[in-house]
Specification:
Length: about 120
């Protein structure tokens, strides 16, 4: 589970950075994830082996399968954070907890969370 969580954290971070920056660099990931540059290099190598990213020089790009997985993780994160805030959880705690829950939540439970948000008018 730990390796899977790390893969998803990297994919989500690459996705988030790519939404605001024209190119994603290893330094961006190291800074945002609070890890060393060598750790990023190792993770990017693994993501390439899994077919989730491609690199061109210093730039990192999500492949089609990487983008799909990253969007899925990001959507879960946003939806879970919104759900926790709707329950009355403070913003910082909701952010931290959503980041943890997004990796382990079952499809059944996640679907129930989305239905609950929709029924309460807080569309997911």
């Amino acid at each position: 589970m730990k390796i899977e969580q790390s893969v998803e954290d990297y994919l989500e971070t690459i996705y988030v950075v790519s939404r605001t920056e024209p190119q994603v660099h290893r330094a961006d990931l190291a800074r945002r994830l609070g890890v060393s540059q060598p750790a990023v290099t190792k993770a990017v190598r693994k993501l390439k082996d899994l077919g989730y990213v491609a690199t061109e020089g210093m730039h990192i790009f999500l492949t089609e399968s990487g983008l799909s997985r990253a969007e899925n993780v990001y959507e879960k994160h946003i939806t879970l954070r919104r759900f926790l805030v709707a329950l009355g959880v403070g913003g910082d705690a909701a952010e931290r907890d959503a980041c943890l829950i997004e990796h382990i939540i079952s499809d059944e439970t996640y679907d129930a969370v989305k239905r609950s948000l929709a029924e309460s008018g807080n569309e997911a």
